[in-house]
Amino acid sequence: MKKEDCIFCKIAGGDIPSSTVYEDADFRAIMDISPANKGHVIILPKDHFANVFEIPEDLAGKAFQIAKKIAKAEKELFNCDGVNILQNNGEAAGQTVFHFHVHVIPRYTKDTVNVTWKQGAYGEGEAAKIAEELKARL
Ligand code: 5GP
Ligand code: ZN
Predict the structure, then answer these.
(1) Tens digits of per-residue pLDDT, 54-75?
(2) Residues 93-121, mean pLDDT to the nearest whole number
(3) Within 10 Å of residue 28's Cβ, how many Cβ atoms?
(4) CA triplet 63, 11, 18: central angle to 5 degrees?
(5) Domain ranges of the chain
(6) Which residues are near ligand 1 (CB < 6 Å)?
(7) 32-54 pLDDT, tens per residue?
(8) Using an 8 Å Cβ cutoff, are 70 and 22 in contact?
């Protein structure tokens, strides 16, 4: 299903033309309009899912398979030092377009792209307790 006012629905469905890197029945991968580095690709499902909570598991898995192919192509083309595969859910997590998408970004040792965070810490037994609580919800 498409969402009427969603730009990524229009791009994924081909109603708005885009530089397409990959297309199949379920997905279109395009060049990000404001790339973190040149060659930054975003992978869009053709149906509208706002985020990882809405997309079915099989399609989420397929998105990562496509991301792997694109990462390999970026590595070959740019001979980059690394590749980030990223996916944001919710404004708090940096999502700005609320149609699920996966970023595939070529990275270089001395680039200025910032996807790092200050490392936190757990108290005694805290990580194990949270692991159990998460496990119970899977
Ligand atoms: P988010 O912040 O939601 O994870 O990522 C949204 C991404 O979509 C951003 O990297 C932004 O540059 C890209 N973007 C937003 N609008 C358009 C558009 O109209 N066309 C393309 N190709 N990319 C877009
Ligand atoms: Zn959409």
Answers:
(1) 999 999 999 999 999 999 999 9
(2) 97
(3) 21
(4) 95
(5) 7-137
(6) 7, 18, 30-34, 42, 88, 94-97
(7) 999 999 999 999 999 999 999 99
(8) yes
Query: Could you give the CA distance from residue 24 to residue 18 in angstroms, rounded to a whole number?
Result: 15
CA of 97 to the centre of ligand 1 (A): 6
Q: Is 103 among the catalytic positions?
A: no
pLDDT of res. 19? 97
pLDDT band at 129 (very low <50, low <70, confident <90, very high): very high
The strand pair at 41-45 and 27-31 is best described as antiparallel
CATH number of 7-137: 3.30.428.10
Length of the chain: 138
Mean pLDDT of the chain: 97
67 alpha carbon, distance to own chain's centre: 8
Residue of 40, 48, 101, 103 marked active site: 101
- Tell me how far apart the alpha carbons of residues 27 and 29 are, in angstroms, rounded to a whole number: 7
Q: What pLDDT is attached to residue 48? A: 98
Which helix (H) or strand (E) is 28 found in, with range? strand 27-31
| Distance between Cα 113 and ligand 2 center (Å) | 27
